[in-house]
Amino acid sequence: MTETDVDCENLIADMTTKARSAAHILARATDDHKSAALKYAASAVRIDTPKILAANALDMAAGVASHLSDALLDRLKLDEKRIAAMAEAMDQVAILEDPVGQIIDTRTQPNGLTMRRVRIPVGVIGIIYESRPNVTADAAALALRSGNAVILRGGSEAVHSNRAIHHAMVTGVTQAGLPSESVQLVPTQDRMAVGAMLRAQGAIDMIIPRGGKSLVARVQDEARVPVLAHLDGLCHTYVHSQADPEMAQEIIVNAKMRRTGICGATETLLIDQDYAAPAKLVAALIDAGCEVRADDMVMELDSRTVSAQEEDWDTEYLDSVISVRMVAGLEDAMGHIARHGSHHTDAIITGDEKIAERFLAEVDSAIVMHNASTQYADGGEFGLGAEIGIATGRLHARGPVALEGLTTYKWLVLGQGQTRP
What we know:
Blueprint: H1 8-28, H2 31-47, H3 49-65, H4 70-76, H5 80-94, E1 103-108, E2 114-121, E3 124-129, H6 134-145, E4 149-153, H7 159-175, E5 183-185, H8 191-198, E6 206-210, H9 213-222, E7 235-239, H10 245-257, E8 266-272, H11 278-287, E9 291-294, H12 296-299, E10 306-307, E11 321-327, H13 330-340, E12 345-349, H14 353-362, E13 367-370, E14 390-391, E15 399-400, E16 407-414
Parallel strand pairs: 3-4, 3-6, 4-5, 7-8, 7-12, 8-11, 9-10, 9-11, 12-13
Antiparallel strand pairs: 1-2, 2-16, 14-15
């Protein structure tokens, strides 16, 4: 059967039916059972490393042939170290505290009724993502650990890598005695399959998109299923007048250049007009291989800069490019972030604790940092084992979404024969 022969509506309907059956089993699975499945899966990933590398080589060759940017190729690339980290992340998720069954709060009414809120799995989760094959492992691990069945639809750029990783995941899941349908990968790259997932109201309980603006916009526009949005990472770092120059330079270069293709990379640098060493910041970025798109004041600091256009302040480059603007203090910096940010991750570098407190309190982003690189916007760095995305909205979950973000709750009411008058 070719891609064009696939009946996507029936395919997704069949997958969701199987996922629902698996979800009922997972919801009753013990902590030890789910943990064992992830440990087996991590072992299978390690054993299958040569197969995963071979599959990734096919994707990388196709990516080069289709002229993907260096940053997107970096997102796509797997090596032994990254695969080992993928397996280690699964092992870490396996030993995290199981959220299912946790009592959130308890209250007893005057009539003796006890009301208790308890965490339960969401049910069936659909994840639509692009480019990064590690999402296949991270998403499956987090969904399984929190008692959810998951349907994965990866991007065409990583199709071979995703299939190889998924095969290893299923090996581990079934070795633990859990249903293979706990973790399903949509077997077609036909875009109609995405539409079928978005229309699967009642069959899929929550959709999580991970990708660029166009993907997220489509999901939000078309979905009839609740969406936990992971929007673009238009992250800012503001260097305040009281920032330590050595610290500022080290943080800025790391925040932009450590990995340019991740959502936590700083895309806009705001420099206080009273900061002591702005030229050194700009030079350090350029010397590190970064193109600096600057406003007029910053352009005067280094002839190697280029003029920023208005759209640069709203661009997530995911590449070795940064926009830099001089600002007239804290209010100006926070105003710029409010106008142009994506509510993902924003940071301030300053030695003034009161200024830092204002920034942390008033910047409306999922993650706000003081004297740290925005590259720490990662669930693993938060001690969550892995993440399914950085949620930038306000409802249900915000920031790195891990186990708790993939649960909901129900009320348990315990009585001794009470009747309502």
